[in-house]
Amino acid sequence: MNKKEAALDYFIRAEDLCQIHHLEPERVQVAIYILKWALQYHDFQRGEYYRSFLQNNLAVLSDPYLLGLAHRQLGDALFKKEQPSHALENYQKALEIFNRLSAVIEQARTHKAIALTHNLREDFEQAQVHLKKAVQLFERIPARSERLRFMQHLVDVQEHLIANLQQGSGSDNQIIALQQTSLIIHSIFSLETMLHNIMNTVINLLKADRAAIIFVDKTSGGLEVKVNRGMEDATIEDALRISQSIVERVEQTGNSVLSRDTRGDDRFRNSKSVRNFRIFSLMCVPLKLEDHLIGTVYIDSRNPDRIFTYRDLEFLENIADLAAVAISNSEYYEDLKNKKDTLEKDVKHLREAMEKNFKFNNMIGSSKPMQEIFKVVSKVLDKNVDILIRGESGTGKEKLAGIIHFNSNRKDKPFVTVNCAAIPPTLLESELFGIEKRVATGVDMHIGKFEQADGGTIFLDEIGDMSMDTQAKILRVVQEREFQRIGGSKTIKVDVRIIAATNKNLEEAMQNKTFRQDLYYRLNVLPIVIPPLRERREDIPLLVEFFMKKYGPSGFSKKITNAAMKALVEYDWPGNVRELENVIHRMMIFTENGHLTGNDLPVEIRAKNKIQEIIDSGKGGMALKDYERTLLVESLKLNEWNISKTAKTLGVHRNTLHRKLKAYQIAKPKL
Asked: 578-625, pLDDT tens digit by residue?
């Protein structure tokens, strides 16, 4: 299934869901986009069905913005059916709505549609009025400058040609050709297809025999024939030579080349193609964008009765100006497309990396508590049940939430994480539920985390830090799976699995009236408690091995001594698994030999290990006084005589340590 078919498939599935759940306004909204798709891909039968459906169901749309879009889409459909009067009726209704809403960009787009419809009716004066209005509106929004300049240029050109037409000196065909060319620019993004269309228009209108569009290479400055029609090699050589002279001439004067009759034109006395192929008349004009030369347009005639005029030259220059903008638009589109493709690849790689990181076997543990957790999780992966994960900081709550999501039937949908403690209470509500547009001056619409997670999983970390007001609004989402954006009145429904986590004692928080009891019972449907690392020491060797493989060089494995492993197992790990991972990572970076030893351990772990050795050796009868003095000296040595670090290692206050050092007359040795 290609992207075009996939888009339609998503729309049809969305419409089916709306129909099943009797969501008529949403179904009409989907119909707007299906009709747009049908018009874009020339599916006229489907387009006619949804045009009729949309026409008959406008009354269910309460959102004025959507109603405006619906009327404009109906106008587009009727424009395609060449029913300009009915198209204009719908465009005018859309414009009235967008004017009331002050929706500037939609006003501009609707004025442009009205202008094109008046063009179809050959009402050039009205077309001019609305096209000018579209330009004025586009200038008020951050739109692409090249497109704005093109539109302003088109206004100027059409004004000039309409004036000539009114005076009886213009050409109806050339006016229509310029209109066709402007439509091509707005409807075709393929550079080659667009240039062929422009070239064919020029040949047909000017009754030329051959034509070519030539580009200046951005890197080398050389010339390249991009598209041509009916040109022999010798003619191409001459066209390139003439184009080269144009390039040089434009840099000096900006003039084009017109030879009304090459037989008497000294400039072409030595041209092979002029002589061999009996070229009687030719023109070559520059392609310029912002006074920057990007190429030329060349045409010629072999018919002695078809001699190009200065009016033809002016027309070709106008076409060339439009073509230059079209080229810029196409390059901009290609650049966007390439960026989009790159972004899609990056997203794919990121998702693959996340899925790899959250594989089920990445949750390490052979201890009984961990095995019980794995057993529970495996049973509820695809169950639509909310989960409350509890445990100290660093135990792996977010890791477990990710494993649940990426191994469930929601794995292809978003996994959105929110750290409730890291976001100020005043901003948390807008972060979770979003903000409606036009809530305040300068405030744009913001999609909240719940809406982003639709179809997938939202992980609410540190939920115990949430304010009571926000808890009340979270309760509604947990119960009904619906909410409203800040400043909005529309109820938004989401299909989302909620996994919450906390390191707080929620039972105590409920007693202190800082956590809602009803929210607790709603979230606590499936509680999972991850024990701290000190309560499952048998898992530490497995975790050490896992992290050594993770951070070790590819194809090279380090080993850890028994003494170092013993110290790691006996350490209490206040930071739990996160702290252990950081320690192993640091050791793998700084250890140069093939073994991790006790000397590679951080000072706090070595200090604790040394203290334990002293305690163990003191059991044989060492006097308490001697034992305490030895403990202080060894701790100071391990902490390089840093008082604060030593006090922290021993678990005492700095003042207490100072008193002990004075009592035992312990001082840092002089160098």
From this structure: 999 999 998 888 877 767 888 888 877 776 666 566 555 554 445 556
Output the pLDDT for position 441. Answer: 57
- Give the CATH number for residue 612: 1.10.8.60
Residues 525 and 544 in one domain: no
CATH of residue 492's domain is 3.40.50.300
Residues 6+ apart with CB under 8 A from 658: 643
Distance, CA of 382 to CA of 499 (rounded, Å): 13
- What are the tokens at 499? 């996994």
The per-residue pLDDT for range 199-244, each reduced to its tens digit, is 877 887 788 888 888 888 877 777 788 888 877 776 677 667 776 7
Of the residues 508, 531, 554, which one is the last residue of a structural domain? Answer: 531
**Residue type present at position 290:** E
Q: What single-letter amino acid sits at 380? A: V
Q: Can you tell me the distance from the alpha carbon of 611 to that of 552, in angstroms, rounded to the nearest whole number?
A: 30
Contact (Cβ atoms closer than 8 angstroms) between residue 378 and residue 439: no
Residue among 46, 45, 63 at smallest CA distance from 7: 46
**Which of the residue ranges 107-116, 146-155, 532-541 would you say has the lowest mean pLDDT?**
146-155
CB 233 within 8 Å of CB 242: no
Residue 13: inside a domain: no
545 and 506 share a domain?
A: no
Whether 395 and 533 have beta carbons less than 8 Å apart is answered as yes
The answer on 457 and 563 residing in a single domain is: no
Q: What's 486's DSSP letter?
A: B
Question: Do 425 and 495 share a domain, yes or no?
Answer: yes
φ, ψ (nearest 5 deg) of residue 355: -65, -40
The answer as to whether 654 is a domain residue is: yes
Same domain, 391 and 514: yes
16 domain-assigned:
no
Measure the CA–CA gap between 427 and 324, rounded to whole angstroms.
47
Of 509, 531, 553, the domain-final residue: 531
The verdict on 573 and 620 lying in the same domain is yes
Total of domains in the chain: 2
644 part of a folded domain: yes
The answer on 483 and 377 residing in a single domain is: yes
Token reading at 271? 């041209």
Give the separation between CA 31 and CA 51, rounded to whole angstroms.
Answer: 8
**8 Å CB contact between 647 and 658:** no
pTM here is 0.53
Nearest to 319 by CA among 125, 193, 113, 180: 180
Domain that holds residue 451: 358-531
CA dist., res. 247 & res. 259, Å (int): 17
Q: What is the C-alpha separation between 638 and 526, in angstroms, rounded?
A: 45
Residues 563, 467 within the same domain: no
Predicted local confidence at residue 404, as pLDDT: 92
Q: Which pLDDT score, from 0 to 100, does residue 443 have?
A: 63
Distance CA 644, CA 659 (A): 14
β-bridge mates for residue 284, sequence order: 257, 298
pLDDT in tens, 115-140: 888 877 777 678 767 877 776 676 56
How far apart CA 326 and CA 287 sit, in angstroms, is: 11
Residue 71: which of 45, 100, 46, 42 has the closest Cα? Answer: 100
Helix spans in 465-561 (H): 468-480, 506-511, 517-523, 540-551
Three-class secondary structure of residue 454 per DSSP: coil
Mean pLDDT of the chain: 80
Residue 316: which of 178, 216, 197, 164 has the closest Cα? 178
